[in-house]
Structures are given as C-alpha cells and as structure tokens.
Design brief:
The chain has 557 residues and is an all-alpha fold. The protein has a domain at 434-556: Orthogonal Bundle (Arc Repressor Mutant, subunit A), CATH 1.10.10.60. The chain is built from 27 helices and two strands. The protein is globular and about 95 Å long.
Amino acid sequence: MIKKYLFILSLYLGNPVCAQQNGFKIPDTLLSKDYNYLFEHIKALEEDSVTQSLYLQSFLHKAKSEKNPEKIINGYKNYVHHSPENLKLVYADSMIYTAKKSMDNALIGSAYLTKGIMFYAQKKHNYALDNYLVANNFISKTNDKYLTYKVKYSIAHIKYYLGFYDDAVSLFIECIAYFKEENTRAYLNSLHSLGLCHNRIGDYGFCTETNAKGILEGKRLANDEMKHYFIHSEGINQYSKNNYVSAIKKITYSLPALLKNKDFANEAVGYFYIGKSYWDLKKPQMALPYFIKVDQIFVAKGYIRPDLRENYELLINYYKSKNNPKSELHYIERLLKADSILHTNFKYLSSRIHKEYDTKELVKQKKKIENLLDRRKYNDFIFTGVITFLFLSLLFIAYRHIRNKNIYKQKFEELMKKSEATTKVEARNISTGIEEINKDTVASLLKQLEKFEKGKKFLEKDLTAAKLTVAFDSNAKYLSKIIYHYRGKKFTKYINDLKIDYIISLLKTDKMLRNYTNKALAEEAGFSSTQRFATAFYSKTGMPTSYFIEELIKVDS
C-alpha cells in the first residue's frame, strides 16, 4: 500500500510540462509514454480510481496538446467508460463536439454510436435508437466495415428489445460472421444475443446449442468475459424447458459476475427467473425474496421489461392469498407504475403482453383495498348513492343512445358523399419547423412516403415510427416532422387513418367483407388488436364499425 502511494507521489513530483491551460501537468514519468501504455493502465486500474484518474487525464491532455482529434475522442471515451453515471453523458457530448469539428464522418458516427450505447446501458432505449440512427447516417458514408457492423449489432439489440426477434436474429448472424475474425468480445457478445433471441422465439434447443458454443469459443479464444452470461442465458432457457432446479443452479452461479459488472438489468432478470422456478416448484416462500429483489431494482433503476411484469402479478396474488391487503395494495401501485413505463416504451407491444390485471381493474382493486384499509363503511350512504347513480346512468345511457344514433346517421351521410379521393390523407400546410430540414432530404422522404402509401405498406402489423425510420434509413425526428407537415397528423393517427380508409373502401365495394367480425377486419387492416381497430375506426368516422356496415347494407338493399 505504501509503495503504491509513493509511486503516485513520484509521478506528480517528476519534471512536469503543461499539457493544457487548465493547470493539469503530465508527470515527467508519463510524458514519454505512448497512448497504448496509458490506455492499458487505465483498464488495469479499475479498483484504484485515484491512480486511474491520473492516467485518464494524461491520455486526454496528451491528445489535446498534440491536437489529435481521434485521440481526443478516445480520451473522452475513456472517461465515458470510467466515470460516474451522472458524468457519462457530458463526456459523450464532448466526443460528439470534437468529432464534428474534425468533419470526419467515421469519427462523428463513432461518437454518436458511443452515446447511443451509453443510453442503451442505462436502458433508455428511445434515446439509444435516436443516436444509433444518427450514427448510421454518418457511418454509411464511410467504408469502415467495423463501425458498420457495430451499428448493425446495436440496431439488432433495439429490435430484440422491441420484440422483432426474427429481424434481430438475421442481424446477429451477420455480426457473428464478421466479428469472428475481427473482434473476439464482439463475436462472443453476438453469439450470446443470438441465443437470447432463440429463447424468446421458443427455439430452446438452438438456444442451448448457441450457449454451449459460446462457452467453447470463449475457451478457444482465451476470453472468459462472457462465460457467466452464457450460463445466465442457459439458466433462463432451462426455466423455459421446465427444468427448474437446473435453472436455479445456473442463474445463481452467474449472479456474482453480474453484480461485479453492475449489470442491474440481467441481475433483475436472473432474480425473476430464480423466483419463478421456486414458484413453479410450489415453494412460494423461497420465491418471494427474489421477487422482492426485482422490485428493489425497479425502484432504484426504473428497469422493467414485459416478462418482468409478471413479478408484480405473482406478488399481488401471494399477498392476496395471505389476506394481507396492505402489501397487496403496495404491489398493485407498483404494477400500475410499471404498466405506465411499459405502455410508454412498448405501445405497439402492449397488446401482446398477457395481463392478469388490466389497468382499469387494477384501479378498481386499488380503490377497494384503500376503502378496506380505511375501515370506513358507510353502507347506507353507499347503497343510496349506488341506486341514485344507476338510475341517473340509465337515463344518461338512454339519452346518449338517441343522440348518438342521430350523430352516427349524419356522419354516415357525410362519409358516403365523399369520393375515394377525398377519403385519402391530404397534405396540409402546418408550421412544424420543417424548414430546418434539408430540401433534398424532405423530397426523398416524401417520395418514400408516397411509395409507402401506394404500395399499401401501412397494412403491416406492428408498424412503428422506429421501424419505418429504419426502413427509410432516416432520422426519427425528421420523419415525424415531415409526416406532420405534409399529412397534418402525428405518426400513429397517420397510419391508423390510412388503414381505416383502406377498410372503408373495401366495405363499400366488397359485400362479403361486411360479414367479417371486427377481429377479422382488424387483421385485414394490420391492426395489432381488435380494440385498436375499433378505436381507430370510431376516431376516423365518428361511428362504430357495426353501425357503418348496417347502413351500407340498407343503402344497397
């Protein structure tokens, strides 16, 4: 210990030279060292932040004194990887600022990619994708294959997160083929991600094969950094195969490495599937601590994904069975918060998530338990209020039924008077800040939109702004502005209106289609759920689908 601090002192007491005007001086003992030497010491000093800081500063200031943009960017990147969470974004922005000054597309793209990766590590996936797309725009202008595949790998992870597993598999296979000869860690990472995709698709055998291959390849390449991740992945895969004891053993074995890496996301996933394994082994008391750990990570980090939602359903059921309304209410409130985050990040996926408790039902249960806990029972008052409410509700329903019939009739007549041309989405001149976008970019995106509309590509199910942005090789912000400016609508309404216009046209001309259920019509138009279709149809036409079809039949009879 004494020798270490004497070494640090000797570094500072060496004959220094001023590397930057901010007062920092590179110690004479480091002045002649090259970047590789400094970088290797930065990596080796993970457990000694004091000494590591000296090497971080020396690397960056050496680069600045030499006015070397690439090395300056690497200096900031070192800080991104070895700084507290609250400073990582600052250094990432410094990378981008320096890269832009260099006018080098590869450096700019790489800087944006690093910022996106940082956001992904923080599980801020929307921001990550925005930066990946910007990075791709710059990197596509270069011949840098490594950066090209690094972007593909990053986009593949977003696709995996969004649930587009088949697309992610294709990209990861490309990355595996490239990185196998170029970068050992990236190669192993890609193999691991491919295994995760196979598990989510239900190809459990392929997942096991991929995990086994990953461990063997790590041994062959003398790199065991991913070993525990492959074991963690296989543990979850064993749960999927109902091998609960094996799942517990493998995931538990992998957890210390995840904790050391501060990988809270995989830590939470591991706890959940250990808990689920005990739960399915009919050992709820052993499962409970793991479910609570998942909740603690959610509270601390805000991390949740669709399969972890069940964590709260199980906690709610457990405490309900134990007649513990206070804890039941606590986890209902937590589930409501989790749902709010999931609906924001997974709007298009929400219909795929099996929900034992939908939001409305949760609110009702929450209110019921709050009343129970308050132990306030005003039975007579409540009974009178309910009767009054029901009576007034019936009057209101009768009134609304008559009023709606008149409104629907008017809307139907207006809709039938419109020609095919007028039912299409029309361009509107709205001030949206589109003047900030390059005219050639606007023209290109408009042309792609027209082709998209004419080719009825909007009928694709699970179509999102992010997916369309990737298909157009564009920027999410630009595409949203152009759609709003020239179509007068936000993305979701724009797509929904195109789908509904298509269905209206079919219903007018194809009498057989009028026998379809709402579910069948929703499938025909590419909606992810019947409810989304019904809501979109009403929003567009001002009437339910059933009324529109009934009136069409009357007109033709």
